[in-house]
Amino acid sequence: MRTLFRIGSLIMHTHQLIMCNLDISAIQETRLQGQHIIETKNMYFLCSGKQEGKHEHGVAFVVKIEGINNVLDFDATGERKCSIRITTKLGNLCVLKVYEPTEDVVGAVISQ
To answer: Looking at domain 9-110, what is its CATH homologous superfamily?
Structure first.
């Protein structure tokens, strides 16, 4: 899947996560704008993207609806990074999602 910005992409991604039996997943290139939480039938999408302009970049965590009570904090830092703090059987865990442009991108964009 290339982007969550297309119609039906969110539902398709939800079905793929259910088939893989994942409780939490980190994704990039969501192309969604702003910082928000999207609730679907089975999942929560905790998104961080650009505030304005083109629909590009964007990162998110996807959490099963049963596991949302384990989420202590979600920090939407920007269009390329976010973090989530969750409680586990072994203690609290902080997970970072950082999206770095590929090598074929102009050097000025990478240095941002």
So the answer is: Endonuclease/exonuclease/phosphatase (3.60.10.10)
